[in-house]
Amino acid sequence: MSYIIGFCCNECAYAAADLAGSTHRKHPANVLVVRIPCSGTFDPSWLVYALARGADAAFVAGCRKGECHYVDGNLKAEKRVDFVKELLEAVGVEPERVEMFFMASSEPHKFLAAAEEMARRVERLGPLPRDRRLERIRMGKKRNLVEALRAITKKVEDVTLPAIPGFKVPVFDESCIGCGACAEACEQGALRITDSNGFRTILVSAARCNACGDCVKICEENGERALKLGGLRVTQLLAEWSEGIRIPLVRCEVCGSYFATEGELRKAGSPRVCLSCREISAARAISFGRVRA
């Protein structure tokens, strides 16, 4: 039997559901209600995780617009549900499987209408196919979201998702010199630098990034403005690591090995000679007495 999860705010939607029950109004038996303090506390990963764990649809219900007990929690929730809709569509899942509803505590009929609407959608859409069923929640909302998405993904369309708090990643500008300060400043280990085949690549892990902005701050402190936080792409979210930027490396004029970027050398005012060759050159100069020890 398919079932539907409804995340209902304590102040209005859950009260409306409770009133519906106390007045003997029946809603579809496959609709399970989860009470949350405010719809604004809802996290996008909850809906996706519910789908990955076996629900065929999920919804969020909050106070009426303009009447949220926590000012604008319901409006924030609406944006997050829209985010999940775009995310599901990008991975080949019907966005109608999630929805946002608004109601007052004195409107049990609206809760019933919401429950019945979602039940009809599930009947029309059928069961949601899954590659596997998640058994536990991993630490971190993005990690949880990624694992849940991988379980229900059908076909990935690489689109940029709307930026909402907590779901942003570092976006590199072409002016980046590849100094690596951003990776050193990231306590989450969401940035990684590799040098290979004549290029320096900065990799980004969207699942690890918590959008704290430390990488952007250190970039600005170093006198650069090559980094900002922006919306992430679906492929970035699903991949363990994705390419943030690739910068050509400069060859050493002595040994010919790649060792630094053009921007690094320009900023440091250094010649195109790697550190090893400079050390060898200095040692030779000392040995021939050209440099006073």
Please name the CATH topology of the largest domain.
Rossmann fold
What's the count of strands? 10
Over the alpha carbons, how many angstroms does the gyration radius reach? 26 Å
What class would the helix/strand composition place it in? Answer: alpha/beta
Across the major sheet, the strand order is 2-1-3-4
Q: Which spans have pLDDT < 50 for at least 5 consecutive residues? A: none
Describe this structure in words.
With 293 residues, the protein is α/β, with parallel strands linked by helices. It folds into 2 domains: 4-152, Rossmann fold; 168-278, no CATH class. Helix content is 36%, strand content 20%. The chain is built from 10 helices and 10 strands. The radius of gyration is 26 Å and the shape is elongated. The model has no long low-confidence stretch (mean pLDDT 91).
Topology:
Elements: E1 4-9, H1 13-22, E2 31-36, H2 44-52, E3 57-62, H3 73-90, E4 98-102, H4 108-125, H5 141-152, E5 168-172, H6 181-185, E6 191-196, E7 199-204, H7 214-221, E8 227-231, H8 234-238, E9 242-251, E10 258-261, H9 262-268, H10 275-287
Parallel strand pairs: 1-2, 1-3, 3-4
Antiparallel strand pairs: 5-8, 6-7, 7-9, 9-10
Features:
293 residues, alpha/beta, 2 domains, four-stranded antiparallel beta sheet, elongated
Task: Give a short synopsis of this structure.
The protein is of the alpha/beta class. It has 10 helices and 10 strands. The strands form 3 sheets. It has a 4-stranded parallel beta sheet with strand order 2-1-3-4, with helices on both faces. A 4-stranded antiparallel beta sheet has the order 6-7-9-10. The chain has a two-stranded antiparallel ribbon with strand order 5-8.
